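Homework help board

Subject: predicted structure for assignment chain

Our instructor gave us this sequence and asked us to write out the predicted structure in token form, then describe one feature. I got the tokens but I'm not sure how to describe them. Can anyone check?
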Amino acid sequence: MQQPIVGYHLDTESHWVAELGCGHYQHVRHNPPWVVRHWVTTEMGRAAMLGCPLRCKKCDDKAPRDDLH
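My token output:
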């Protein structure tokens, strides 16, 4: 299921995590050649992606919200 990005935070290892509109969190790493997300590396790039959809596997699996923890 596609969900919009509504914010970001850093995890304990300083990796960027997208906060999705559904309440789930998803890592958004720039890890070439497997994952190319140049936009993650700058504040302006992350801001430009706010509202853009990401596939949320946790929604597909009907997992509880991450933001309740």
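Reply (TA_rk): Your tokens look well-formed. For the description, you could write something like this. The chain has one domain: 2-62. That's the kind of observation they're looking for.
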